[in-house]
Structure formats: structure tokens, C-alpha cells
Amino acid sequence: MEPGLFENLAEHYEAGGPLMGFMALVSLAVVAIAIQRALAVLAFRGALRRLDDGALEAVRRGDLEEGRRLCGRLPTSMREVLVVGLDRATGLTRGDPGQAMKREEKRALGRLRSWIWVLGTAGALMPFVGLLGTVLGVMQAFQAIGASSTAGFSVVASGISEALIATAAGLFVALEAVVLYNSLQNAINVQGRDLSLLVDEASEILRLPRVDHAEPPAAG
Predict the structure, then answer these.
(1) Domain extent at residue 138
(2) Most CB atoms within 10 A, among 120, 158, 171, 173?
């Protein structure tokens, strides 16, 4: 009976050398961080949509108090982006509404990008870790050949093929990390663009003088 997939993976794992355990841990960490950040991006996108449909829509109508009230239903990072501008536009806090919202926009995107650097680092580092494992495996293979006083292509090829498993594993983890890193960066950039457009629109509205729609226009 031929060995199954898991049996083959177990054999390759054992033959890959001591660094295989480290690469396996890095691979699991990369996947876990990518899933957590993907969920954060989805939550950010939902909050951005609620901001556009709720609080910002009230600001478009000129009802800044209602807009601020609706901001209370948003997550903290998204809520502060518009609240700081509304507080300055209504006189509760001194400062420029546009600059304040831009500052909070950067903070919100900074939180969204947290831990993404781990994926980029893993993508750049893991090929070298795999190469190190291969070098150590080749050295061990030649030491075993010297100790046994046996040589030949089959003996050398067997040791080197096992050592190359570490390189293959390092490249796999690196490819995994790079693909996830680029996918998340692209998704975050899209959300950052949409948030920037909303902040620009809110800044434009808040720069306009407020009009009290409750007062009737003056008679001509």
C-alpha cells in the first residue's frame, strides 16, 4: 500500500532538518495574521459604508448635530474620523476640521495595517531560512558519507535531495506570505482611498458657512 499524503508530508518534514519546525510555525503565524487582518478589513469596509450612509449623509443635509449622534454607532477608529471635524466645525473644539479629520484618517489606516509587516518580513526572510536549512543538510550528508567511508552518486543524491526539502519549504512559506501581504495591502489601499474621498467631501462641506434652514428667507 502506497503512503498517503499525510505520511509523505511527515517524511518530508523529518527529512527537511531542524529548521522545518520554525518554518511551519512561521507559516501558521502568517495564515493566522492574514485571517485576522482580512476580518479587520471587512469590518472597516462595513463601518465605512455606515459612515457614508448615516453620519455623512446627515452632514450633507447640514444637520451636524445629527451627524455627530450617528457617529456614536460606529467603531471607535471610524467614529473619531468624523467626530473631530464636527467638533471643530461646531465650535466645541478649536482647530481646523479638515486637518483634524486627515490626522484621524491616518491613525485609522495605521491601525488597519498593524501586523501586516510580519507578512512582508516573512516573504523576504523565509527563502534564506530554507537555504540555510539546505546548507546544513548538505553538510550533514557529507559528514555522514565521510563517517561511513562510502560514496557514490546514489548516496550523495539522497542526502542532497533531503536537504533541498528545506529550500522548497522556505520558498513555499515565502510565496504564501507574499501573496497574502499583497492581497491585504491592495484591500487596505482601496479602503484608504474610499475613506480619503469621504474625508475630502466632509472637509469641503464643513468649510462652507452653516445655514439655519429653520429661519425663513428675508422678504425682498
Answers:
(1) 16-207
(2) 173
